[in-house]
């Protein structure tokens, strides 16, 4: 028996080079070497699979995509991540719609006073009424006090809730859908998705802005009364006065703002080698993206505002003027300066809007996503497994 045991030890020592003849030491040394082999193998595999390129970093920072890393053994902590990765395009779109609705209502309400001043400065004849932005603020306050800054707020709340839901929901859908195609350049995903979102959301945004801006410009009556006047005079199509100008403004503005935010965010994350922005970084990226978009698209916004606010008293006149006619009229009456009316107020408004809007959307999205994943994981844990 002793001879057999000695022979076994020598065989084991031949296979694994051990420095001691103790069986206990043989086992410990063998286990240590085997563990080292497994760890080094795992490290090499992790290094190869978890390498994040700029493209995967961009997908990680998008609102819809997560980096495709190696799925570890499920644990209570990693189950949530696995469930998040498995969300369908439809689920991501619905979460985006819910977050966009809440963020849109909050942001539009917060910044409505700035939008009111911007509209007054861009209305025809404003150069004879207001000297500058400060003068417009003072004269607006002198009319009805603080409430004068919130003219048309009811239409804003209702319209912005639905338009923001459509905008972000469509963006989420577009980003999730387009990211499934490897041949589609990841750099073009945000502008393409925002283009889709702007077209869809404008169907709700145009009637909302039409009613709101006429009230801001001085038309008397409540939101529903303005709506009734438009429907009685021009029918349903009257609600889409300025639709072409709105698209002309919203498409480039939306693409510039949304894409700038995504690209700035991606650049910061790649430079700092992390996967999530701090709240301050998110606000700064949003503000800069909004300022860039607003400054470049102010002439389009002036044309759109003129088309929506052509009225005399309470009745709209010359609403058959197209974009080209409005541009010619502005150039004849005020020159190139007329196309920059309200730029200061608009840049400030857009910078604040984008900073608050993107921050509010991301906060709402993460809160809704966390609640949804917990609910989904709870359902999965309570579902009996099929033998």
Strand content: under 5%
Q: How confident overall, as mean pLDDT? A: 75
Total helical elements: 14
Computed over alpha carbons, the radius of gyration is 30 Å
Quickly give the CATH architecture.
Alpha/alpha barrel
What is the chains' assembly state? single chain
Output the CATH class name: Mainly Alpha
Strand segment count: 2
- Indicate the overall shape: globular
Helix-strand string: HHHHHHHHHHHHEEHH
Quote the CATH topology.
Mitochondrial carrier fold
Q: Order of strands across the biggest sheet? A: 1-2
Structural class: mainly alpha
Whole-number count of domains:
1
User: What portion of residues is helical?
Assistant: over 70%
CATH superfamily: Mitochondrial carrier domain
The main sheet comes to: 2 strands, antiparallel
Taking pLDDT < 50 over at least 5 consecutive residues as the criterion, the unreliable ranges are: 11-18, 20-27, 37-71, 76-81, 312-317
Could you please describe the fold and organization of this structure?
This protein has 14 helices and two strands; from the N terminus they run H-H-H-H-H-H-H-H-H-H-H-H-E-E-H-H. Strands 1-2 form a two-stranded antiparallel sheet. It has helices at residues 2-15, 23-49, 54-61, 76-85, 89-122, 126-129, 133-144, 153-178, 189-217, 223-234, 243-272, 279-308, 323-334, 343-382; strands spanning 311-312, 315-316. It has one domain (85-370): Mitochondrial carrier fold. Residues 11-18, 20-27, 37-71, 76-81 and 312-317 have low confidence and may be disordered. With 387 residues, it is mainly alpha-helical.
């Amino acid at each position: 028996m002793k001879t057999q045991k000695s022979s076994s030890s020598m065989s084991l020592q031949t296979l694994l080079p051990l420095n001691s003849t103790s069986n206990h030491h043989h086992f410990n040394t063998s286990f240590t070497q085997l563990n080292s082999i497994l760890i080094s193998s795992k490290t090499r595999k992790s290094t190869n699979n978890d390498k994040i390129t700029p493209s995967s970093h961009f997908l990680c920072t998008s609102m819809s995509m997560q980096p495709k890393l190696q799925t570890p053994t499920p644990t209570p902590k990693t189950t949530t991540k696995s469930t998040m990765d498995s969300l369908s395009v439809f689920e991501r779109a619905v979460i985006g719609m819910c977050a966009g609705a809440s963020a849109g209502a909050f942001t539009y309400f917060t910044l409505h006073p700035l939008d009111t001043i911007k509209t007054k400065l861009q209305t025809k004849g404003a150069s004879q009424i207001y000297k500058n932005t400060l003068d417009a603020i003072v004269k607006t306050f002198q009319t009805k006090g603080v409430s004068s800054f919130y003219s048309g707020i009811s239409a804003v709340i209702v319209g912005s809730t639905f338009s923001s839901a459509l905008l972000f929901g469509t963006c989420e859908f577009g980003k999730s859908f387009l990211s499934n195609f490897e041949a589609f350049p990841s750099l073009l995903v945000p502008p393409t998705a925002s283009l889709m979102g702007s077209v869809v959301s404008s169907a709700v945004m145009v009637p909302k802005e039409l009613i709101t801006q006429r009230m801001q410009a001085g038309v008397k009556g409540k939101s529903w009364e303005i709506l009734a006047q438009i429907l009685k005079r021009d029918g349903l199509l009257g609600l889409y006065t300025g639709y072409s100008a709105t698209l002309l403004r919203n498409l480039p503005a939306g693409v510039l703002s949304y894409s700038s935010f995504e690209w700035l965010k991606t650049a910061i994350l790649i430079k700092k080698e992390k996967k999530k922005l701090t709240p301050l970084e998110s606000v700064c990226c949003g503000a800069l993206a909004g300022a860039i978009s607003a400054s470049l698209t102010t002439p389009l916004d002036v044309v759109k505002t003129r088309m929506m606010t052509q009225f005399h008293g309470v009745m709209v006149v010359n609403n058959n003027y197209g974009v080209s006619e409005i541009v010619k009229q502005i150039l004849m009456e005020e020159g190139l300066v007329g196309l920059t009316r309200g730029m200061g107020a608009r840049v400030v408004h857009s910078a604040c809007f984008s900073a608050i809007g993107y921050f509010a959307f991301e906060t709402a999205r993460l809160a809704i996503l966390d609640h949804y994943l917990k609910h989904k994981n709870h359902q999965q844990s309570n579902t009996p497994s099929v033998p």
